Amino acid sequence: MRLELMESDQQQIDDIRRQLSDCRSRIAGDVQTIAEGVRAAVNWKQQLGRHPLIGLALAALTGYWIVPSRRVTVSHVYQAANPLREKRKPSVTSALLRSVVSFATRLAIDYLKQRLLAAPARRQEDVARY
After folding, report:
1. What's the structural domain count of the chain?
2. Does the pTM exceed 0.70?
3. Residue 47: partners with Cβ closer than 8 Å, 6 or more residues away
């Protein structure tokens, strides 16, 4: 009887070992399948290939987020409408130059005015001499 128990115990042990090896092979296959699925889910190039519109939307949102926004104020609108208007106050040098040019222009105009008004009188003197 003892021998029968040992044979039946041995068969049970062999059955358990076979079941464990089957479980191990199934688990190894399942783990490999899960790992491949995770790699495919994490691979951003594959995801962009599958869903290009979502990738485009994410790129646009990222660009909008990164680039600082420019606030539009009344002065920006006025500046756009009048592009020739100076935005800053003139510097001391440009104010001085403007004053000098203005003064020189006035002197030139006064000189020309005197010359033109004096020209007819000189002509009369020249005609009287001859």
Report:
1. 2
2. no
3. 41, 55
